[in-house]
C-alpha cells in the first residue's frame, strides 16, 4: 500500500502529494519544518516540536491556518493512516503559492502544510559502539541576526554546505563554529561535553534541540550532574572526558575524536551511555500517545 501523505487537510497517496512550482518554500526556502519521531505509539515531545514550529512561523509571519492542537491531531492522523507506531515524521510548512518575486505578500493563499511519516534512516550501529570521528568545518553557522539558528526554516543551505565539507573530509558529522569562533553545533545535531561531573553545551549559535532539552533535564534530575549552557571553545571539547551529539535522528551518539584529537579514553564514555539508556526509556513515555 502506498504511503499516505498529509497535504493541506487531506491524506493523499504519495503520487498525488504535489505542490505548485510557484510555492515559496521551493522558490525561496520560505517556510519552516520539524523532524519528529514516534516510538511505540508515542510521539516524543510532540507539543514541544509544535511550539518550536509555531515560533519559527511567528517570526517568519507565516499563518499555518491551524491551531497547535489541530496540528498535533494532523500528525497523529498521518501516523495512524499509515499504521506506523515507530516512525520519522517530517512536518513542512511553506508560505504557499506566490509569484516569481520574493515578496511574501504575493503569497495570497494559505500556507502549504505537508506531513510525511516514514521509516527513519539511522546512523549505523557501529557508530554507537565505537563512537564518531568528526572535524570542524570552515562554514560558520549563520549569524543570529542574519538567519537565526533558532529558526528551523526551509533554508538549510548553511547546514548543507557544512555537510558537504564533512562529506569531503570523510566524516559523518561536523562541528560548526559561531561567528565569534565558539563551538555552535553540528550540521543536524547539538553537541555536549562532560568534564568533572559537569555537562556543558553551547549557549549560542545553535538550534535549541528537543533532544538537547530532554538530555539536559535527565542529566540534572536523574544523574544530578551540574548542567551548564556556556560559550565553549574547541580547546575545551578536545580536552573533555566525553563528548556526544544529540538529535531526533541520532538520539545520543558518542564522539571519540575531533580534528585528530582523541577525546578522553577514545571510547564512548559512561555518562554518555547512561544518558542514552535514560533517553531511550523516556522517549516511550514523554509525548503524545496515540
Ligand atoms: N541542530 C540542527 C541544526 C538541527 O537541524 C538539531 C540540532 C537537533 O534538534 P532536535 O530537536 O532534533 O533534537 C537539529 C535537528 C535530518 C534531520 O533529516 C535533521 C534534524 C532532525 C531530524 C532529521 O537530517 N535536525
Task: Write up this protein.
The longest helix is centred in the N-terminal third of the chain and has 15 residues, at about 45-60. The protein has two domains: about 5-120, 2-Layer Sandwich (D-amino Acid Aminotransferase, Chain A, domain 1), CATH 3.30.470.10; about 125-285, D-amino Acid Aminotransferase, subunit A, domain 2 (D-amino Acid Aminotransferase, Chain A, domain 2, Alpha-Beta Barrel). The mean pLDDT is about 95. Strands 7, 8, 9, 10, 11, 12, 13, 14 and 15 form a nine-stranded mixed β-sheet that branches. A seven-stranded antiparallel β-sheet has the order 2-1-6-5-3-4-16. The chain has helices spanning about 25-30, 45-60, 70-80, 125-130, 155-170, 210-220, 235-240, 270-280, and strands at about 5, 10-15, 30-40, 40-45, 85-95, 110-120, 130-135, 175, 185, 190-195, 200, 225-230, 240-245, 250-260, 260, 285-290. It is built from eight helices and 16 strands. By secondary structure, it is α+β, with helices and mostly antiparallel strands. It binds 3-[O-phosphonopyridoxyl]--amino-benzoic acid.
Features:
290 residues; alpha+beta; D-amino Acid Aminotransferase, Chain A, domain 2; 2 domains; nine-stranded mixed sheet; 8 helices; binds 3-[O-phosphonopyridoxyl]--amino-benzoic acid
Write the layout of secondary structure elements.
Elements: E1 4-7, E2 10-13, H1 24-28, E3 31-39, E4 42-44, H2 46-60, H3 68-81, E5 87-94, E6 112-118, H4 125-130, E7 132-136, H5 157-169, E8 174-177, E9 183-186, E10 190-195, E11 198-202, H6 210-221, E12 226-230, H7 234-238, E13 242-247, E14 251-258, E15 261-262, H8 270-282, E16 287-289
Parallel strand pairs: 7-8, 7-14, 11-12
Antiparallel strand pairs: 1-2, 1-6, 3-4, 3-5, 4-16, 5-6, 8-9, 10-11, 10-13, 13-14, 14-15
The protein binds 3-[O-phosphonopyridoxyl]--amino-benzoic acid (PXG).
Residues 35, 159, 185, 188-190, 207, 209-212, 246-249 line the site of 3-[O-phosphonopyridoxyl]--amino-benzoic acid.
Amino acid at each position: 500500500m502506498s504511503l499516505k501523505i498529509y497535504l493541506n487537510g487531506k491524506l493523499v497517496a504519495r503520487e498525488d502529494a504535489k505542490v505548485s512550482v510557484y510555492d515559496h518554500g521551493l522558490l525561496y526556502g520560505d517556510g519552516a519544518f520539524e523532524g519528529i519521531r514516534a516510538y511505540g505509539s508515542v510521539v516524543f515531545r510532540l507539543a514541544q516540536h509544535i511550539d518550536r514550529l509555531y515560533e519559527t512561523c511567528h517570526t517568519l509571519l507565516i499563518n499555518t491556518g491551524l491551531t497547535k492542537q489541530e496540528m498535533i491531531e494532523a500528525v497523529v492522523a498521518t501516523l495512524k493512516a499509515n499504521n506506523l507506531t515507530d516512525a520519522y515524521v517530517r512536518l513542512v510548512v511553506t508560505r504557499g503559492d506566490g509569484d516569481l518575486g520574493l515578496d511574501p505578500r504575493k503569497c495570497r493563499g494559505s500556507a502549504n502544510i505537508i506531513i510525511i511519516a516514514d521509516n527513519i534512516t539511522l546512523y549505523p550501529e557501529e557508530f554507537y559502539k565505537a563512537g564518531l570521528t568528526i572535524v570542524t568545518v570552515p562554514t560558520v553557522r549563520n549569524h543570529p541576526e542574519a538567519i537565526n539558528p533558532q529558526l528551523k526554516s526551509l533554508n538549510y543551505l548553511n547546514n548543507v554546505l557544512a555537510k558537504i565539507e564533512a562529506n569531503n573530509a570523510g566524516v559523518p558529522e561536523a562541528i560548526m563554529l559561531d561567528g565569534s569562533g565558539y563551538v555552535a553545533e553540528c550540521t543536524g545535531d547539538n553537541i555536549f561535553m562532560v568534564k568533572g561531573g559537569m555537562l556543558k553545551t553551547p549557549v549560542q549559535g545553535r538550534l535549541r534541540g528537543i533532544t538537547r532539552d530532554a538530555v539536559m533535564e535527565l542529566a540534572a534530575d536523574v544523574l544530578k550532574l551540574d548542567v551548564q549552557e556556556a560559550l565553549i571553545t574547541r580547546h575545551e571539547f578536545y580536552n573533555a572526558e566525553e563528548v556526544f551529539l544529540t538529535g531526533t535522528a541520532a538520539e545520543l551518539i558518542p564522539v571519540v575524536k575531533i580534528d585528530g584529537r582523541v577525546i578522553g579514553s577514545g571510547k564512548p564514555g559512561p555518562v554518555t551511555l547512561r544518558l542514552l539508556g535514560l533517553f531511550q526509556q523516556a522517549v516511550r513515555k514523554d509525548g503524545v500517545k496515540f
